[in-house]
Amino acid sequence: MRNKVVVGVIFLVIYNAIVFYLGWNVYQWLRIVFHMDFPIVFSIIWLYCAYSIVLSHIDQRFRMTKVVSCYWMIIMEYGLLLFPIANLLLWFIPSIHIIWIGYIIFGLFVVIIGFGSYMAYSPIVRTKTIQVKKQKGEKESFRMVIASDFHLGILSNKKLLQKFVSKSNAAKPDLVFLVGDIVDDHPYWFRAYRMDEVMKTLTSTYGVYGVLGNHEYYGKQIPLFIDEMKKSGVRILQDETICIANSFYVTGREDKTNKNRQSLEQLSKRAEHQLPWIVMDHTPSDLITPVKLGVDIHLSGHTHLGQMWPNQWITRKTFELDYGYLLKQTTHIIVSSGFGFWGPPIRTNSRSEMWVVDVELVD
């Protein structure tokens, strides 16, 4: 307990130091450009932005505060990258006026948000054909649509979900897999915006299946979420292995956030290994076990490929595969960067996407 308090205090000190540093830079520029001299008013507004992340979790209905918190993350990330450069330029080249440096920084933020918004709200379809050496059941081939990390809520919204449904239905899949973090923590806005009306129109030959991600656990409303998905035509698999159309097995794992989730070894005993075995596991933290157990197709998300540059350096160090496709022995592994986004409504290092994968069964 004492260690947690110490860590908490250190975090608050560092965070508030960052907030002060960023705020001081912004205020100095505003004061010179607009002759603004209202430090108390500015401080109140700045602190509201800085703590909007906390305030937005007090009540899910604080819509504007949630939006502010998402854009605040952009200011934090890129402010910490750009402001020190600006400070160094002013320090070493005194002839450069703070006004012009400020305009350049402001312009860069506009470009970052504009470009990032396009990458976040203009999803693309990635296609792949793979061959699986398995006994052919009633199907000799099948098509999967794979998507993850929608984080459906206020900014990753009903319109974006409609884009997914339209693209998925156009692909005419046999199976649709939603690989976790479908809602942004709490399903409140999914219900409020009636996103189920859109999700219900998602079609496939053998159904739509999903798993829980870490954010469903953060929201602590899993029964409500599962009920909303059921009404939307999505079956959430919780440490379950099911046989579909006598042609393939699908395992949906609980997210690793659940420390009591079953092992893949336990779930593998329910699958007939003569048929293709597909596993959904939101976080690609362990790609060794699926290979050892003979999983044919392993699907994950979670990483967002960092979402905002240069966060991909972290994901690449954290995960064996933080994005894309990998054939490891006989296991086909796909990690999606996600169809939506978490927090900041921008992507500067990846693009919203869904995968269409054609699976050919060969003897």
Task: Give your account of this protein's structure.
The chain has 363 residues and is an alpha/beta fold. It has 13 helices and 12 strands. It has helices spanning 2-34, 39-50, 52-55, 63-92, 98-121, 158-171, 188-192, 196-199, 214-219, 222-231, 264-268, 288-293, 312-318, and strands at 124-133, 141-147, 175-179, 208-211, 234-236, 240-244, 248-252, 277-280, 297-300, 324-328, 331-335, 353-362. Helix 12 (288-293) links the parallel strand 8 (277-280) and strand 9. It starts with a helix and ends with a strand.
Features:
363 residues, alpha/beta, 6-stranded mixed β-sheet
Backbone shape: elongated
- Element string (H = helix, E = strand): HHHHHEEHEHHEHHEEEHEHEHEEE
Distance between the termini: 58 Å
Structure summary, number of beta strands: 12
If you compute it from the alpha carbons, what radius of gyration comes out, rounded to the nearest whole angstrom? 23 Å
Query: Quick one: biggest sheet?
Result: 6 strands, mixed
Strand order of the largest sheet: 1-12-2-3-4-5
Poorly predicted regions: none
Please tell me the overall pLDDT.
94
